[in-house]
Amino acid sequence: MSFPSSSMPAESSIAEKACAELICRTAEANAALMRGDIDAYRALNPHAADYTLMSPFGGRPTHEAELTQERWQAIGRFFANGTFEQEVVQAYASADMVVLAVIERCRVEVGGLPMQDWPLRVTLVYRREGAEWRLAHRHADPLAKGISLEQASVLARGEAL
């Protein structure tokens, strides 16, 4: 993992510390989510009021305002009995923003399907709001193992593989 350098060493050190803390907190939060523990996920990973989610299942982006209490509880029920590992591909940090590019490796029951591996490529954007870091954006896709150009074209056309 590398951090782009800042012109001010003290600022860089603070940003790197915040980045390291967010990497750990992100892993803890997502491990809780894979177990279906939505309350722990939300406590560890507070969202910005303007949060956006681009789900690995596609479709239109979800905005924080759409995430009602009922929807959060449904999200918690969507995941069960999972394990979670996180590989940081790259981390970028500044005084007020941290961006993490990670590979998430989950083994989990999703949406009532049998237990399986779910490797995801994920980009996370955290923004500092006062003294607190909040998740402003998450973009995930299930293409960690790669697909062919032909398979990608089928997906782009909205057709089933």
From TrEMBL:
One of its GO terms (molecular function) is isomerase activity. Keywords: Isomerase. Residues 29-135 form the DUF4440 domain. It comes from Rhizobium leguminosarum. Signal peptide: none annotated. This is Ketosteroid isomerase-like protein.
